[in-house]
Amino acid sequence: MKYLPLALVLVALGVGTYLEGNYSERWGRIRTERLKQFAARLDELPMQYGDWQGVRQEPDERAEEEFKASNCEKCWSVTFTNQDGQTVNCYVVCGLARHVTIHTPDWCYVGAGYQLMDDPQRYQAKQVTEATDVNNQPTVPEFLTAVFRKEDPLRSHHLRIFWTFAHDGNWVGPTQAKTDFAGMPALYKIYLITDLDGLSGDVESNPALNFSQQFFPTANKVLFRTEDMQTE
Question: Do 86 and 16 share a structural domain?
Answer without folding.
Answer: no
